[in-house]
Amino acid sequence: MMVTSLPNLLTLSRIMVIPLVITTFYVGGDTARWVACGLFVAAAITDWFDGWLARSRNQVSVLGRFLDPIADKLLVASALFMLAAYDRVSEISYLPALIIVLREILVSGLREFLAEVRVGMPVSRLAKWKTGIQLTAIPVLLVGDAGPAWLPTRDLGEVGLWLAAVLTLITGWDYLQSGIRHIRAHSEVPEKTGASPRHVG
User: Fold this and answer.
1) Rounded to an integer, what distance in angstroms lies between the CA atom of residue 171 and that of residue 175?
2) Could you tell me the CA-to-CA distances from 131 to 67, 100, 167, 197 in Å, in that order?
3) All domains of the chain, ordered by start, with CATH?
4) CA-to-CA distance for 42 and 8, rounded, in angstroms?
5) Residue 46 CB-half CA count within 13 A
6) Which of 14, 28, 58, 73 is the most buried (most CB within 10 A)?
């Protein structure tokens, strides 16, 4: 499974950094906020770097394809949860955070179903923009009030979070429509072939 390949190790490091980011919330202080920001940024960089390495070295593996989206979702969801839990975002910004998390759950479910029927769901360009804005807004929010006095760091982070949420809704709707088309096509197969339908619990 190439567990020890560099791309997979980078993906695993993204998961391992999550407890460290969470710990900074319990430590408190401006330094802890900047450490959380640095850890998150480093993890976000590995998100691009591990994919590039896997393709350039021809080390794309089943394990890597499995772990990569999970690492991304765990990192983002844990950071958003802690920001909300520690009142580091305004209450109105709970909504975009919730939208982002729910969309990730939706897309994960669609990908699981489509994988069963061997249909791929490529990442759209708009979804990449969404991810980029999201991975920029969250570390800005992690710094929050510890940022420069002349810069409205928290406000900028929340604007970025809202923008990411808007793109999240658009891309989530696109993925949902695509998934529904494949679900309908798959459900029609037994009727055409005369095979009995399969029920999934």
Assistant:
1) 6
2) 17, 10, 9, 38
3) 6-189 (1.20.120.1760)
4) 15
5) 24
6) 14
Q: Which amino acid is at 94?
A: Y
Angle at 116 between CA 111 and CA 118, to 5 degrees: 85
Best CA proximity match to 136, nearest among 169, 108, 158, 107: 158
What's the pTM value of the predicted model, to 2 decimals? 0.81
Report pLDDT digits (tens) over 21-55.
999 999 989 999 999 999 999 998 887 776 666 66
pLDDT, tens digit, 9 for 90 and up, residues 58-107: 666 666 667 777 888 899 999 999 999 999 999 999 999 999 999 888 87
The CA-based angle 175-181-184, given to 5 degrees, is 135
Closest CA relative to residue 103, chosen from 171, 184, 47, 181: 171
Which pLDDT score, from 0 to 100, does residue 195 have? Answer: 47
Round the CA-based radius of gyration of the chain to a whole number and report it.
19
Classified as helix, coil or strand, 73 is: helix
